[in-house]
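To illustrate the input format used throughout this study, we show a single complete record. The first block contains the structure-token representation of the backbone; no residue identities are included at this stage. The design step must infer an amino acid for every position from geometry alone.
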């Protein structure tokens, strides 16, 4: 088993980058604009509420 890497889009620890990328693509096709929202929230930093999203 390989070591997890961090997704550059959402920060999740992933083992299969290809599967995770397809997951992002599927979400974006169903929820247009999601990628931009995730990026915006990551740039804002921690919310301080204990919940990132």
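Output of the design step:
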């Amino acid at each position: 088993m390989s070591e997890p890497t961090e997704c550059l889009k959402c920060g999740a620890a992933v083992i299969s980058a290809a599967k995770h990328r397809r997951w992002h693509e599927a979400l974006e096709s169903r929820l247009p604009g999601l990628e931009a929202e995730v990026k915006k929230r990551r740039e804002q930093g921690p919310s301080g509420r204990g919940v990132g999203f």
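Structural context for interpreting the output: Residues 46 and 52 are 7 Å apart (CA to CA). Helices lie at 17-30, 34-44.
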